[in-house]
Amino acid sequence: MPGIDHFTILAPWYDRIISYKEDEELIKWAELPITGSLLDVGGGTGRVSRSFIDNVKNLIIIDVSFGMLRIAKEKGLPATCALGELLPIQSDSFGRVLIVDALHHCTNQQEVIRDTWRVLKPEGYLLIVEPNYDHFSGKFIRLFENVLLMKSKFLSDNAIINLLLDHSKEIKLKHVKGNSWFKVKK
């Protein structure tokens, strides 16, 4: 893929630049702990999913950035390089699938949703956290990533819900500090 590899450049500083402080609330939203496994698609350095380790049986981070995955592995987190559209995972394998601040970086968002749904176990939850398109912070992030030529494709809440409706009618949405949180039951 031609262009700047933003995430490999940012990887050594990513956790300090982009912190995550809603761990406890996200753990509750995900209805953890569970005896099953959690897949973090676009999980990068593991900045979010590392707080889930004590709440799941297994955890795997999937990302396309070797630089970000190197940091995750340095933290002792299991990480695999793959596209969210083509997950190298058996169907019905995970009780929770997490996509935090990553869907807008995916080239084919509909295929990411389709393949994460495929690997999600029946009765499991797909959890998506994205910048709220209409919130000031979401507008700022869109502008910032556009200036950096990141080719991000941000979606409104309704557009994300429309992607999810192909798979489930059990969709919950809430807004937390400038982000849209989606919880979808399989």
In short:
With 186 residues, the protein is an alpha/beta fold. The chain has helices at residues 6-10, 14-17, 23-29, 66-74, 109-119, 136-147, 157-165; strands spanning 37-41, 58-63, 79-81, 94-100, 120-131, 171-176, 179-185.
Relevant terms:
25% strand; alpha/beta; Rossmann fold; 186 residues; single chain; 7 strands; seven-stranded mixed beta sheet
Structure description:
Helices cover 31% and strands 25% of the residues. It has 186 residues and is an alpha/beta fold. It has a 7-stranded mixed sheet, sandwiched between helices. The protein is globular.
List the helices and strands and how they pair.
Blueprint lengths: L5 H5 L3 H4 L5 H7 L7 E5 L16 E6 L2 H9 L4 E3 L12 E7 L8 H11 E12 L4 H12 L9 H9 L5 E6 L2 E7 L1
Parallel strand pairs: 1-2, 1-4, 2-3, 4-5
Antiparallel strand pairs: 5-7, 6-7
Total number of β-strand segments? 7
Instruction: Classify the beta-strand content into a percent band.
Output: 15-25%
The Cα radius of gyration reads 15 Å
CATH topology: Rossmann fold
